[in-house]
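User: Sequence recovery, please. Input:
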């Protein structure tokens, strides 16, 4: 697909908190050229842009909260335009009605998911006018049925393709007991970016047993990304793929190199 090796900076969130420029330099040294931002230190956008440029990294996408992409969209857009991103991605849903103070919020309803789709369409339309693309990033919980419906399928049904895209986190799809290839076959041309992560998965993994999935480096777990990328090349227009290493079980710089090498081996 001719993709540039990318990484989600959430992977090095602890390292960035300790030494921002050092963490970026290590990401570049491992072989990554593009990044997607998350968990950045609290610095002005111009300062962050300088650090990225110094490290030789291009930030093409960012993860921002539901509040950031709805209520605070103008400020979010202004900040991210300085960074130079092309995509603003929401990695989690909001609720139609805020829970009562002090109460424990229950699971989202199908109406909540419809509300998310409504808000995402509005955000996508606004960002499109600003020259940016809006999208949604999944975890495993979007595949837990609610009132006989699968929330992720509801988002794909209700979110308008001309207003927004989807960033499929293939690892979380597998942890939920679903198949990224099947999703891409069912929903052609809906996904423009991929998150690439690996887990040791038990047999018959499902959202009910997701806690049994153990994070590892790419190529060392249960997920073979070759057929996933092959399917993506058939009926999706993937523009970026980002490694996301949720945690490290070997030294972090070594882990980044393992991930970068695996991603490059996919002939992306």
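Assistant: Recovered sequence (268 residues):
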């Amino acid at each position: 697909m001719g993709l540039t090796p990318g990484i989600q900076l959430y992977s090095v969130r602890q390292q960035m908190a300790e030494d921002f420029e050092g963490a970026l330099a290590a990401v570049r040294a491992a072989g990554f050229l593009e990044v997607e931002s998350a968990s950045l230190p609290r610095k002005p956008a111009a300062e962050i842009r300088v650090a990225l440029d110094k490290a030789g990294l291009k930030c093409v996408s960012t993860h921002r909260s539901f509040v950031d992409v709805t209520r605070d969209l103008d400020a979010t857009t202004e900040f991210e335009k300085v960074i130079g991103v092309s995509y603003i991605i929401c990695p989690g849903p909001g609720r139609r009605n805020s829970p009562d103070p002090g109460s424990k919020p229950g699971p989202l309803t199908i109406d909540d998911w419809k509300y998310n789709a409504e808000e995402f369409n509005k955000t996508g339309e606004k960002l499109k006018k600003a020259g940016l693309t809006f999208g949604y990033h999944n975890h495993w919980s979007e595949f837990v049925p609610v009132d006989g419906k699968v929330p992720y399928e509801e988002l794909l049904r209700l979110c308008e393709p001309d207003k927004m895209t989807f960033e499929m986190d293939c690892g979380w799809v597998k942890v939920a007991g679903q198949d990224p290839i099947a999703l891409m076959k069912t929903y052609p041309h809906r996904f423009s970016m991929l998150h690439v992560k690996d887990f040791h998965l038990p047999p018959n993994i499902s959202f009910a047993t997701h806690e049994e999935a153990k994070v590892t480096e790419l190529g060392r777990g249960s997920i073979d990304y070759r057929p996933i990328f092959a399917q993506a090349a058939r009926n999706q227009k993937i523009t970026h793929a980002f490694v996301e290493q949720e945690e490290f079980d070997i030294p972090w710089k070594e882990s980044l190199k393992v991930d970068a090498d695996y991603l490059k081996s996919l002939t992306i």
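The radius of gyration is 18 Å.
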